[in-house]
Amino acid sequence: MANSTVIAHTGANPHPDMEKVASRHSAINGSPEILAGEADAELLAKLGYKQELRRNFTMIEVFGIAFSIMGLLPSIASTLAFSIPAGPVGMVWGWFLASGCIFVVGVAMADLGSAMPTSGGLYWWTHYFASPKTRNALSFLVGYSNTLGLVGGLCSIDYGFALMFCSVIVIARDGEWTPSNGVVYAVFLACVLCHGVLASTLSKIMGKLQTVFVAMNLILIAATIIALPVGKRLSSERNDAQYIFTKTENLTTWPTGWAFMLSWLSPIWTIGAFDSCVHMSEEAANAAKAVPYGIMMSIGSCWILGFIIMIVIASCINPDLEAVLGSSYGQPMAQIYYDAVGKQGTLGLMSLLFIVQFLMGLSITVAASRQTWAFSRDGALPFSGFFRPISKRFGYIPLRCVWGCVFLAAVLGLLCLIAPAAASALFSLAVAGNNVAWLTPILCRVVWGQKKFVPGPFYTGDRFSVPLAWFAVVFLVFGIFLAMFPVGGPNPTAESMNYTVVINMFVWGGALAYYFIDARKWFTGPKITVEDVPAGMLADGSIEGVETGHGDKVLVDEKGKESV
Ligand SMILES: NCCCC(=O)O
Predict the structure, then answer these.
(1) pTM score, two decimals?
(2) pLDDT tens for residues 441-496?
(3) Candidate from 65, 67, 68, 69 with most ligand 1 atoms within 8 A of CB, to mutate
(4) DSSP code at position 327
(5) Is the CB of 272 under 6 A from ligand 1?
(6) From the CB of residue 205, how many other CB atoms can be counted at a distance below 10 Å?
(7) How is the chain split into domains, by residue range?
(8) Which H/E stretch holds residue 46?
(9) What is the assigned CATH class of domain 58-521?
(10) Could you tell me which of 115, 117, 324, 552 has the fewest CB atoms within 10 Å of its CB?
(11) Is 357 touching ligand 1 by the criterion CB < 6 Å?
């Protein structure tokens, strides 16, 4: 038994009002550095972990990292090929409806994030809520799905950056140049390596930088919302309200209704990675509030701003949508800009676009490294011992995990060399991988763990929390299926096939095979690293006689069997 500490039942509320806890900052665990406020360190200790990272991020900066990863306009630009085929209705209403559903997912996650804010939250919650027989396997699966989903997100963002960067050169050369797959990969690789360097060296100001990234995003959005209609000055050049809000198209070989559903992939990918707020939990001050509000504010602002952007795009787009999709610039958004503001304006806006896309990649590198670090802290990754140490020199960050993510992204990015269809599977790896990681803890909570759930300072209430969680589960399952559909139609060719199903089955099948063949012998869930086990401990994975947080005392044997 790794830890046989027995904790007396104190009946203490595991979530004392964070504002009322003494604000005195103290050195944690003998370190001369001040890493966290007392309340945050105390709540983290209840989850079983000692404070090791420095809490540099305010609530706005936690929101900033998610909003920056969402990178609203670059993401819309990268995914217009999913929504344009369904016409303006797919672009405008597809965005509005899907974003609303994503907001519900965010609210369900916010309930959990406020209650138990820790960097590896998703697999931690899964282990906490799932049944004793399933929790180790499910937690292992979620940890891998989340880690690879985030690295897939990094790949897809940086691949999008490489395409946009190349398209600016194509426009500058008036379409007289076509980048080869090798050139795209070289730009991608340079971008990923830059992210590694910046995520390693800018740790002390990474929180502050998020505010700058938010401002850059807002400037780009404002520039686009103003430049497109102004560029199409003559109202006869713009599409009318009837076209924007009621015109359907179907440029796919699927039925029209399904083409509309496929347009949801654009908001689903764009408004992704809001779990980054959870992964920054251990670097956030007042995490029990910063995490839930960061999640909801980032989704909510993308919902509204994205709806406005889609209306503007639909009003200024050339109604010959096939021509826009088949643009010689390689990017529908570049064509839309070109048609409105000409070559110089397009070069300016596309340059701003790829700079913001670059910032998205930097933010997701940071978030992915924190999830990777949390998972290695719990010993679940290969070479966990190597990845686990924190670099004090570089500002209390998981430096090796930053470079582990960079290395993995560089390898996965090799798909760019095969074919665009293989590369686009990176988009769906992010969607499907993360959706599994988000839905599993929410599902485990409503199926097995409802009694164990102790709300944090943010809570949707007994009446709404469970129905919202069920809605989130259904939507996320739908999102996983959607991400696997070949957009080209029911009879895909090798080029138009969606390889997500292959990649994700490899990830999920590989993780489960690894667990059942080997890891089940040593992975018993999140480890306890805190030295003085506090009263009201929530962590109950592999220690004996620990409070579950709702008044029951459980005894857990080495095989994970519980008795109350
Ligand atoms: N807006 C990009 C989000 C990428 C991801 O879903 O991981």
Answers:
(1) 0.88
(2) 999 999 998 889 999 999 999 999 999 999 999 999 999 999 888 877 788 887 77
(3) 69
(4) -
(5) yes
(6) 12
(7) 58-521
(8) helix 38-46
(9) mainly alpha
(10) 552
(11) no
